[in-house]
Each structure stands twice: as structure tokens, then as C-alpha cells.
Amino acid sequence: MTVINFGIVGLGRLGKIHAENLAKNVPGSCLIAACSLVEEELAFARNQLGVAKTYTTYEEMLDNPSLDAVVIASPSSFHVTQIRQGLEKGLHVFCEKPIGLTVNEIEQIIPIINLHSNQKFMLGFMRRYDTSYRYAKKMVEDGEIGEITLIRCYGIDPSSGMDSFLKFAKNGTSGGLFSDMSIHDIDLVRWFTNSEIKKVWALGNNKAYPQLDALGELETGAAMMALDNQAIAFLVAGRNAVHGYHVETELIGTKGMIRVATIPEKNLVTVYNEHGANRPVSKDFPERFKEAFIDELTEFVSCISSNRQPEITALDGLYATEVAIACKNSWLQNECIDV
């Protein structure tokens, strides 16, 4: 098997997941370089993952002549620039979502990606590689539930993460609830229906954490969407699930219905005690989508080795971001928005 030498930029919570998978869990990959501004994160790469070369600047890492590909897990505002720099160095590029924060900058990077057609570019919509979602997708493609009429998506982070998010929101700028969280569900809606979202109406509130009002952030948001094929989508996003990490999807069709993770179960264990019969649930996204993160990078390595383009493209990132921004604008303007 051909071994692909990777570098990674960004070693936060998600970056560490990708780094560990490249170093230990993805066949055909070798993590030889890592970049971060935080010395503790570089020490993790060296001491825990055996990364030979660590850097404090992305540009310096890209000059490593042994690199074949780069994974971008840095803050979203750097993605477009780092994609361009990686491609111009002749590297294959895997980038975490979102591809960019504005439609304009994404539209500017797409021609550059297309210009480097001999290199592979892939965006990190990992839910497409989750076993349960792929099973549901196959059932939809086989006509098991007929034509999809409505999709309902829940994506709610655990309330245990609110303190750290409040600190981040006070000191930095996120893409907002819809761009940071609902973008995965938006991609699923497009993926399952093979149709585009044309109109959105979004609402939001900060009931448990009213201090988010002054920061321009949302604790809970919801959006109703109309698709080109007349299907309907309903999204709920939030940061305050007291029971754990809750990601749930329902597909309603003309012949039946599919629900994915109605209860976000951790495993097949049921606990019987003084509290009754209880099913443990996933506590965070690294636990729920552990295998999906491995499988998406395994697919990226396979695309490089077999010289084929990934299923997920830059256009998927553009369309999902357009819809997420429309949801935010709908909430801010309190009106229905055309996409």
C-alpha cells in the first residue's frame, strides 16, 4: 500500500481527533508534521503521536518536502487561505467545515480548487460516513420509504460545554449557531433529497443563557426550509442538551419513515437501578462520530491512492454555507429569506 504523508494544522479538540486517527487508525496514512501556535498541542503531537516535525507557522510546515497532503483543522477564518496555500504547494487538501465564512470567499476559492484538478480536495462532512446514516441513505436510494416529503433534524450540544463556549464567544467570533452546527444537518438534507434548499425561515432564543444576547450568539435555533422538489426540512440546533450530545434525524416518505438515533445511545447497554431502566447516551461528538471521523479520512486516503475525486466537493460547502447564512439572516431580520 502506498503511504500518504500528512501534515495537520490546528490541534484543538477536533484537530487532535484527526491527528490521532492519521497517526494510528487510518490505513495508508502517516502523520509526519503538525502545526499549532500552542506549545502544549505540539508537545502532544511529538510525545503522544510520535510526530517527527512540529511547526508554529503553516507556511513553514508546507515547505516540508516529504508532505503529500495536509489536513486543515484550524479556526474557520483561516480555511480559505490555507486551502489555497496547500494546493499551490502541490498538496492534497482535506479541510474541516466550513470551507469559508462568507459566500464571496468560497466563490473565490472554488476556481482555485478546480484549477488543481490533479490534487484531491475534500470537505469534512463526516456524517456522510457514519454507518447509520449510510444505511439510511441506501434505503432511501432503494426506494424503501418512497419519495421524501419531510426531514426533521436535531443537533444539540451538551450543556456541559456552555461555559467554554461562553468564554470563546466573549474572546472571539464564531460562525454562529447555524453555520457552526446546523451546517451538518443542512448537508444531510441536500444529500438525502438530492435537491437544493430555496427558502428558509429561522427563529432563535437564549432562555437558559441570556448573556448570549449581548454577544450576538444563539443558544437555541430552529429553521423551516422549502426545497426545490417541494420537500420540507425542519432543523433544530442548540447548545443545552442536559442529557448529553443529541443528534437525531427523521426522514418521512410517501411509503414509510426512517429515524436515525431517536435516542442518542452510547451502546446496547440498559442500566436497571433505583432510577428505573436507563440507556446511556453519547456525551459528545468525538464519541458519537468516532468511526465516521476515521472512515472519512480513510476515504480521502483511498481517493489519493486510486486517483479519484471525493464525493464531497467544494460546491457542497458553498451551498451549505449559503443556507446557513440565510438562516442567520432570517433570524436577525425576522423574515423568510430566499436562498
From TrEMBL:
Which InterPro entries does the record cross-reference, listed alphabetically? Gfo/Idh/MocA-like_OxRdtase_N, GFO_IDH_MocA-like_dom, Myo_inos_IolG, NAD(P)-bd_dom_sf
Q: Where is the GFO/IDH/MocA-like oxidoreductase domain?
A: 133-259
Task: Write out the GO cellular component annotations.
Answer: cytoplasm
GO MF entry, a single one: oxidoreductase activity
The cross-references to Pfam families, in alphabetical order and at most eight, read: GFO_IDH_MocA, GFO_IDH_MocA_C3
**Alphabetical GO biological process terms:** NADPH regeneration
| Keyword annotations | Oxidoreductase
Domain Gfo/Idh/MocA-like oxidoreductase N-terminal, by residue range, is 4-119
Write out the similarity annotation. Belongs to the Gfo/Idh/MocA family.
Q: Which NCBIfam families match?
A: myo_inos_iolG
Question: By what name is this protein known?
Answer: Myo-inositol 2-dehydrogenase
Tell me which species this is from.
Enterococcus phoeniculicola ATCC BAA-412
